[in-house]
Structures are given as C-alpha cells and as structure tokens.
Design goal:
The protein is an alpha+beta fold. It has helices at residues 14-25, 53-62, 85-88, 101-119, 161-173, 193-205, 226-257, 263-391, 396-417, 423-434, 448-484, 489-513, 534-557; strands at 3-12, 44-47, 76-83, 123-129, 136-141, 144-147, 177-180, 210-211. A hairpin with a 6-residue loop joins strand 4 (123-129) and strand 5. The longest helix is centred in the middle third of the chain and has 129 residues, at 263-391. The radius of gyration is 50 Å and the shape is rod-shaped.
Length: 564
C-alpha cells in the first residue's frame, strides 16, 4: 500500500518563529495539537541547540551571520515533514500515538539527509515530535546569501584618487557577509521553488514507499492543503445539517402547539417543512459534489505524479548518458594532452642534450687552453718571484706600501671568491694600491727598476684575481652541467677532470701569489676564532655561490634534462 508524503512549507515571520519555539518547549495540550505530555520525553532535537529554536537563532547571529533587513516580513521558512499514519503503523493506522521503530528511524534518516542536502548550514533547527497523533518533524530554515560591500560611487571630501581607488579595490575584493534574507536567496526567491523542494523530498522518500502528497486545492485559501479544505467544508456542512435538524425539531414543536389552529396555518407549516427538506437535499447534493471533486482532484494528482516520475526517470537516464559521455571525452582529452606534452618534452630533451654535449666539448677545449695559459703564467710568476727576492730591497715606506697593495689584492681576491666583485670595486682597489690618500704615487723600492718589477707583480696579482673570478664562474657552470649529466657517464668523466684541473689551477695561483695563507678580515672566523685563509674562503664561497647559481639556472632555463 502506497503512503502519502506530508510536506508543508511556508514563509515565516519572527513572531511565527517565536510561536513555534513556544510550541516546541511548552508541550501542553493547546486545542490545536493532540499533545500527550506523557510522551513528550520521547521528542528529539535533530538539528540546532537543544535549548530551543530561539537559542539556535541567537547562536546563528553570534557566529557572524548578519540579521535580515528590518523591512523583511517573512525572512525564514517553516517546514513540517511527515507521512500518512499507515506508514508509521501499517498494522493499525487508527492507533494514534504508536509507530514502528524501524520505519520511524528510516524515515527520520532519509528526511534529515534531504533537509541537510537542500539547505546545508541554513537548516538552523529541526525537532522530532512523538507526543502527538502521528510522528512529524518541525524544521526552520534561515536562507542566507553573501551580501557584498557596495561599490563607491564618488570620492569623499579631501580623499585622494589613490585612496578612492583603494576603496573601490577593497569593495571589489570583498567576499561578502553571510546575511539572512529569503528574497535575495539564489534559489528560494524563485517562482515554484517550494514546489521543487516538495518534489525532491518526494523523490528522496520514494524508497520508503512514500509517494507524492496532495497539492493544495486550486480554490483553497492560502496555507491550506486539499485535505484541510475538505475537512473544513465537511465541518461547515455538519453545522448546517445540525441547524436544519434543530429547525425541524422546532417546527415539530410548533406543529403540536398549533394543532388546533386554522388549516391554512397547517398548510403553511407543511410547505415550510417541504422547503426544509428540499434544502437538506440540496445540502446533500452539495456534499456529494464536493466528494466527487475531491476524488477527481486525487486522480489528477496521481496522474501528475506518475507523469513526473516518468519524466524524472527519463531525465535521470539522459543525465547518466551525458555524464558518461562527458567523462569519456574528458579522459580522452587528458590522454591526448598528456601524449602531446610527453612528445614535446622528448623532443626538447633530445635537442637540449645534443646542444649540451656540443657546448661541453667547446667548453672543454676553452678550459684546456685557459689551464695551459695559467700554467705558463705560473712559470713566469716563479721566474719573476725569484728576481723579486734577489733584486728588491724595500725601504720601510716601501714595505708598508707593498703590504697595503697586497692587502688590496687580497680583498679583491676575496670578493672574486665570493662572486661579488664589480668593475668599480676592482678599479678603486687598483687606485688605492698605487696611489695614497693624497693621490701621490706609492714607492715600493729604492730604485726605479725594482719599483717597476714590484708594480708588475702587483698588477699580475690583480689580473690573477680577475682570472680567479672567471674561473669560479666557469666552475659554477661546470658544476651545474655535471649535476645535469648524471646519465651520461663519458661526458661526466671529462667534465669532472676539467673541474679538478680548474680547482688545482686556482690553488696553485693563490699559492704562487703568496695569498693562500693570508687571512683577510671578512667577518668570518674559523674554529679558533681567527679569520680563515683566502684559499679556504675561495672554495667555501665558491661552493655556496655554485649552489645558488645552480638554483637560479634551473629556475631560469627550466632545463628538461636529467636532474638530481
């Protein structure tokens, strides 16, 4: 046997919400509801604050939701959900106040799931009443929408254009404030939205054997269902029938009182009796017509439900087919895109690796030439150093000036090792090495020949610092290539040999300059608290700079070759 869905929804004002709160809290017979206080302890709060509806509403506003506008007459929704009594007590539908626990729990679970799915956080209160004739749920919805800041239309007095633009940008970036308002809700403000909610609830409880209930009669007053309207009309007919019965009894008494009156009075009374009987017949005919209309309305409702169910089944079938087709198309498109990306990367890898091998071969030749040149310079340096030891006899001022110049060489070498050397710094260091604060040329020896030899040696030191800067930069690039060539063993061995040769050349150059053990004050100290030697600074800072430049090269070039 099919059962009917009861789903009454109507807009509610704040006073109606307050009245519903009193109805849920004060469970005493009120003439409108058959409340049994002995069963009120069975009622359950399914959503919201157990303290009641008004407390749930206060909690909503305390959470930051904005209250509805003052001119909103009915910003809330009040919903009553139930079903035919026969669903809850199939063995004895007339046994009011009883129910089957399994059916009740299944209905509560499905109904609350649908209410949560439809309204989400806007469902602020729901309570199950089991102390009346038939179980039912009272639910209250506070429809919310995001109320965004108003876009400024004009500048304020004394406000700059930048401040005005900032106010407009803040208004555009505003995510809005959640505000209660049924008239501004994206779905509940639309026509027939209540009917759509009722239809979706009917679809949800269809699995329980509960069908679409009766819609409101076309000529019924607002807020009344067909059942309520028929009950009201039947009550009116019963009142009319009682009035007619009383009228007949009154006429019978009058007949007895005027039994001795004239015959015309008797005839008049009989005519009046016949009129009353005809009126009763008309009332009975009217009752039959109303019953027939109710049956026709029920048949039309059944036909409409059947048509809607068939239409819903067709739409669901079409939706499933479209979803499958869309998923297949999306999967195919992703697969094609993945293949295209993979193909592009493979081509890029091939081109990049080919170019990289060519560049590494050229770089190897260049480094071999530089290393050979460095070795020749070192040999020349050894000869010049021997001449310098044998020929140079520095005076006290010459020694001081020579130390100043060599300190400038050490500072430039340290900046080169740290990869922070600039043309301006290099030129200023050379100037300080050969000119004092007054701009006079420094003296390094007691005769011009020796002085020229020392000047050549100091200039050679500056050139070697620049050469060190270039070699560390090349060392960094080579290190990057080594990290990216892990899958190419033969080029890796060649580049590693070049890298080792470059490190040996740098070490030999600093040693020949006499700067390897010099400790410039650069703000760093070793484990003994002393400034570290220049040679340690070179490799320590070169390693840090290499790591930093490697990351920059990876981000800038986005190479697709092998990575570690």
């Amino acid at each position: 046997m099919a059962h009917k869905l009861v789903y009454n929804i109507q807009p509610a004002s704040p006073s109606m919400i307050s009245a519903l709160d009193r109805h849920c809290l004060a469970r005493v017979p009120d003439g409108a509801s058959n409340i049994d206080p002995g069963r009120s302890h069975l009622n359950q709060t399914l959503a919201g604050d157990p303290a009641g509806l008004m407390q749930s509403l206060r909690n909503l506003f305390a959470s930051g939701v904005k209250k509805p506008a003052a001119q909103s007459e009915s910003p809330y929704l009040r919903i009553v959900v139930s079903a035919s009594p026969g669903y809850f007590r199939p063995d004895d539908p007339e046994a009011t106040g009883t129910w089957d626990d399994a059916r009740l729990n299944a209905w509560v679970e499905v109904s609350m799931h649908q209410l949560h799915a439809e309204h989400g956080a806007d469902l602020i209160f729901a309570e199950l009443h089991l102390d009346e004739d038939t179980p039912h749920i009272h639910a209250v919805i506070a429809p919310t929408y995001l109320k965004k800041a108003r876009m400024p239309g004009r500048q304020k007095r004394g406000e700059t254009m930048e401040q005005f633009e900032e106010r407009k940008a803040a208004a555009r970036a505003s995510v809005g404030v959640r505000t209660v308002g049924r008239a501004s809700h994206p779905t509940l403000s639309k026509q027939d939205s209540f009917l759509r909610l009722r239809e979706r609830m009917a679809i949800a409880v269809d699995q329980l054997g509960i069908e679409y209930g009766e819609d409101r009669a076309i000529n019924a007053p607002a807020g009344q269902s067909t059942r309520e309207w028929v009950i009201q009309k039947a009550a009116e007919l019963r009142k009319e029938e009682a009035a007619l019965k009383e009228e007949r009894q009154k006429l019978a008494r009058e007949r007895k009182a005027i039994a001795t009156d004239r015959e015309d009075q008797l005839n008049e009374a009989l005519e009046r009796q016949r009129l009353i009987e005809r009126t009763g017949k008309l009332a009975a005919d009217a009752r039959d017509r109303l019953t027939a209309q109710s049956r026709e309305q029920e048949e039309r409702s059944k036909s409409r439900v059947a048509a809607l169910e068939k239409k819903a089944a067709n739409l669901q079938h079409r939706t499933d087919q479209l979803a499958k087709a869309l998923a297949a198309a999306h999967e195919t498109e992703e697969h094609i895109n993945a293949l295209e990306i993979k193909e592009r990367r493979m081509r890029q890898n091939i081109d990049t690796n080919s170019s990289r091998l060519k560049d590494m071969a050229v770089e190897e030749e260049n480094l071999n030439r530089k290393i050979e040149g460095l070795r020749r310079l070192v040999e020349s340096l050894e000869t010049d150093e021997a001449k310098l030891r044998n020929a140079v006899q520095l005076s006290e001022d010459g020694t001081k000036n020579f130390d100043i110049a060599m300190n400038e060489v050490a500072e430039v070498t340290s900046a080169a090792a740290e990869m922070t050397l600039t043309d301006e710094q290099f030129q200023s260091a050379q100037t300080r090495a050969f000119k004092d604060e007054e701009g006079q040329t420094r003296r390094f020896a007691t005769d011009d020949e020796n002085d020229s030899l020392i000047v050549r040696f100091i200039r050679f030191g500056f050139r070697k610092a620049l050469d060190l800067f270039d070699r560390i930069r090349a060392l960094t690039r080579l290190n990057d290539e080594i990290e990216r060539a892990r899958t190419y063993p033969e080029p890796l061995v060649q580049v590693q040999n070049i890298l080792n040769s470059t490190r040996d050349a740098i070490t030999e150059t600093l040693t020949q300059l006499g700067l390897a053990q010099q400790r410039p004050d650069v703000g760093e100290v070793d484990e003994n608290g002393d400034p570290p030697p220049v040679l340690d600074l070179v490799f320590k800072r070169a390693e840090r700079k290499a790591q930093k430049l490697n990351k920059e090269l990876v981000n800038r070039l986005d190479m697709s070759g092998p990575k570690m």
